[in-house]
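Z., the sequence and structure:
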Amino acid sequence: MKKKIVLLTLAAVLALSATACGSGGNSSEPSDGGDAKTSDVANKDKPLVWYNRQPSNSSTGELDMTALNFNDDTYYVGFDANQGAELQGTMVKDYIESHIDEIDRNGDGVIGYVMAIGDIGHNDSIARTRGVRSALGTGVEADGAINSEPIGTNTDGSASAVKDGTLEINGKTYTVRELASQEMKNSAGATWDAATAGNAIGTWASSFGDQIDIVVSNNDGMGMSMFNSWSKDNGVPTFGYDANSDAVAAIAEGYGGTISQHADVQAYLTLRVLRNALDGVDIDTGIGTEDEAGNVLSDDVYVYNEDERSYYALNVAVTADNYQDFTDSTVVWEPVSNQLDESEHPTKSVWLDIYNASDNFLGSTYQPLLQKYDDLLNLDVEYIGGDGQTESNITNRLGNPSQYDAFAINMVKTDNAASYTSILSQ
């Protein structure tokens, strides 16, 4: 099955647009509207799945129910952010307790950690920051929840957004202190930026290096940048999130651990809900209810929240005890790996974007999984890569939505669902 993968540099996009024939979807400019419609269904009524970035208010976290109810075939697919955040925090705490004899590098009785924060307005990043602070006792409540703000530096424990925690281990009381944290945002505005994290750990290490006992990151992209830049050579355990293949492999070299958000299940759900809507079958088909090919998910790998119209994959901690089971993050989930009969499920066209082509998790884990599932589900997916900074870099390439049967959208900012639905409503 043909897959149209959009190259992401400006030069490559211009080159493609100059040579493309037939489909206008590979151009960075809006289509001229000359392509034939794939169906008579109005764009506003076509299946839509938001994925990875849930439509929500970036300040309050309140879900955008208008976007989640755009039409009868609109859903969100992601993972249980709070469950995963708690798991990451617990993983870090358990590691400290089981390695207490060697973890306090300068012997001052203070377990100091630094944290790379992804996007201060992203629900997942907020949850992960809160999860770590809650587990380590460093969280301070603000408006009924743990404060998730970056603190800058806090070597003396005076920051107001966090507090010193304590851990009782083997009859001794240790202080736990968040020494530093910042949003890893580059000069161009892209968040979750790995290069920025690598630079940050260098700055922190030169300022208070032997006080850093633990490195924590909101994702593996930033975590691995810090690990490779400093903490690997200095024997400082680093904890990330996403279970990217390079991070899992690095556990053998001292990377402390990561969290699998079951990307294999998420990628399947992203395309499966579209497949079911396009087929006009019950949305649970091939999910909680076995389909004719035998595909089905067990209830220990996902949950569905009907009120939020959202499917959430469940998370698993990946540590030295089990990392060998997660070395390839692009293997499809075996219980949903069966090919659908194309005569019963004819090929349909899907427009799908990834907010940032440079995002390690989405680019190296999620998209390869999607590309395996699109074959199994008989979906011809056009993959659009964004720059991680501006919504228009993506929406400008949705110039002729009539040529697609369904849409899968990964926004730059969770507030910006209307930038897409306004196009589909025209």
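Residues 4-78+263-310+325-424 form one domain. The first strand starts at residue 4 and ends at 5.

Let me know what you think.
H.
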